[in-house]
Amino acid sequence: MSTNESEPLLSVESLRTQFRTENGTVTAVDDVSFTLKSGEVMGIVGESGAGKSVTAKSIMRLIQSPGEIVSGSVMFGGRDLTELSDAEMREVRGNQITLIPQDPMTSLNPVLTVGEQIVETIECHQDVNRKEARKIAIEAMKEVEIPAPESRIDEYPHEFSGGMRQRILIAIGLACEPELIIADEPTTALDVTTQAKILELLNDLRKDHGVSILMITHNLGVVAQTCDRVGVMYAGNLIETGSVSAIFNRPRHPYTRALIDAIPEVGSDHDRLYALEGSMPDLKNLPDGCNFADRCPHAVEACQTGGDPPLESPEDAPEERLAACIRKTELDLSTPTIPESTKRQKKEPIEETLLEVSGLKKHFSSGNGLFGNLSVTRTDGGLSLERRYVKAVDGVDFTINRGETVGLVGESGCGKSTVARTVLQLLEPTAGEVYFDGHPLHSLDDNEIRSLRQEMQIVFQDPKSSLNPRKTVGQIIGRGMEKHDIATGQEKRKRIEELLERVGLQSTDLEKYPHQFSGGQQQRIAIASALAVEPKLIVCDEPVSALDVSVQAQILNLLDDIQAEFGLSYLFISHNISVVQHICDRVAVMYLGEIVEFGTVNQVFDPPYHPYTESLLSSVPHADPNRRSNRILLDGTVPSPLNPPNGCSFHTRCPKKIGEQCEKQVPGAEQVGSNKTHQIACHLSEAEMSEPVDHQEKGT
């Protein structure tokens, strides 16, 4: 397809998409206009429900009943996509425009090999036979740096890691050489190292092929480091657009400023996060004035009437700089709007151990076939049988003091969640000792463990799947109170109402069901449920990874508040390094079932580091377009815990590997200098660990 280079590749004009429901018409996309040039990357950001994904689906004509595009145009290559027939649109999708969805596991067919799925796309859009399509598929897999594509093309989706599955989706999209990639939250569920590789890959595709990318995300760090321009959406409208540097250096809309302020940044101080209160208005019943007025700290009386302000250029800004705010010129939003009252509550340190974990191991049987986990191996003496185990956790030691937060960080599959479940005795340890408040959990029977469950609670990543949809909020929170004989009847109801108010909900919400709440509100219910039984320890397993930055800030502030109020201890599991630095007192860095570094936040986040810690920190996308990170892109993926490497488990990927010592000898955890609280398991000297890696951005 040829286009006039002076014209934009994509031009969206006055796009409006509505969903007609029994309760009224929802205007999910309301008069949205923007352009995208060839080879340009534009980010679309905003809270959940802002209209980001509906905008993307509208561009690709993927809106299904009861939704419809009611007005506007989508010009692509000189044609209005809204005017094309279904058959003509199918020629555009996949061939000229491709969509990379958020969750590759639900987008890939589990019963077809990845090769069959790529080949199917090629055959659908290109005039080639199956043999030629397979060659193109292998080349596409090479392009996205999947190792050994000639053999892996015949593997199934479940045989790939999360990052590799995302690469498969990109390979499917690239196979037909599209001109526009719409990436809908492509890195949300990925750890920082995998995220860095995917972003680097998209950047390479843009450079090598001149592909345009529309990046939909709620991660402002990703936008700052990868995009040329950004559009901010709120309640179905674009409320600000401009270059990335202009938006981050001086936002013109208070909502943009609030999103930036809500981000926990690596290297920033540990002040309380700015949390934008309230939620987006009901899209079926929008306010008379500015849609953001009820939440805006800068709103004046004129903001409450006259409809939503148009997207226009401020008087003192270039024409391409647009904002939908009547005060866009007079407000100076170049500095954070965080009042003094947002200082974090001071925690009194208590040097008394609540949880002590020593030599903890959890190995899973590797097979369930005819011979179970028995494997036949060939030796010099002939054939032999050996039992094989997945060493998910392999000798972990750490402590948590009363009132303290200890973080567990590392890539997906390193054993973080298995540690949590084994500590809580939800999984039976293979070896090791776990003492909780003086009780040896590892040697207690089921009844004794059950009696201690009240004092150990867990908050999961996805509240929607952890809250019973058939129970009211009151029943969910009250169940633990009854089970542990804490309260019944009116006393129970009173406690539930108090807990709901404590986590920022209404006392009247106890009669509602989980589906009537947003994701952030559901997580508040899960926290209230954990607090209901008056625990001493709460395990937080990725509690904010799926939340918008504004909701994330609310939950992190809430966790801070209730810890200071009740003296709770947290085991906080996350792959978000910025969040861990913000909320934790000490941090354990895990790799392949082992802790490779443990210390206070300041000790772990400053040199000397373990080389793996250094690579994690370098991969964090900073929400500052003026700050460029020299990413250390590690080779390959985490080795299989079924067959871990000899010697140091990290030596197969380590950019500072020093030879046979790393390959053959297992490093022990050693004290760093005079800091008794800082330990690193590495053969390198402190000077070598303090020396930065040559940032040649190691290949993937």
- Proportion of residues in extended strands: 15-25%
Biggest sheet strand order reads: 19-20-21-16-22-23-25-24
From the spread of the alpha carbons, the general shape counts as: globular
Which range best describes the helical content: under 10%, 10-25%, 25-40%, 40-55%, 55-70% or over 70%?
25-40%
Low-confidence stretches: 695-700
User: How far is the N terminus from the C terminus?
Assistant: 32 Å
Largest sheet geometry: 8 strands, mixed
| Number of discrete helical segments | 23
Layout of helices and strands, plus pairs?
Blueprint: E1 10-21, E2 24-36, E3 41-45, H1 52-59, E4 67-76, E5 79-80, H2 86-92, E6 97-100, H3 104-107, H4 114-125, H5 130-143, H6 149-152, H7 162-174, E7 180-184, H8 192-209, E8 212-216, H9 220-226, E9 229-234, E10 237-243, H10 244-249, H11 254-261, E11 322-323, E12 353-365, E13 374-379, E14 382-387, E15 389-401, E16 405-409, H12 416-423, E17 431-436, E18 439-440, H13 446-452, E19 456-459, H14 463-466, H15 473-483, H16 489-502, H17 519-531, E20 537-541, H18 549-566, E21 569-573, H19 577-583, E22 586-591, E23 594-600, H20 601-604, H21 611-618, H22 660-664, E24 669-672, E25 675-681, H23 686-690
Parallel strand pairs: 3-8, 3-9, 6-7, 7-8, 16-21, 16-22, 19-20, 20-21
Antiparallel strand pairs: 1-2, 1-4, 4-5, 9-10, 10-11, 12-15, 12-17, 13-14, 17-18, 22-23, 23-25, 24-25
Helix pairs in contact: 4-5, 4-7, 5-7, 7-8, 15-16, 15-17, 16-17
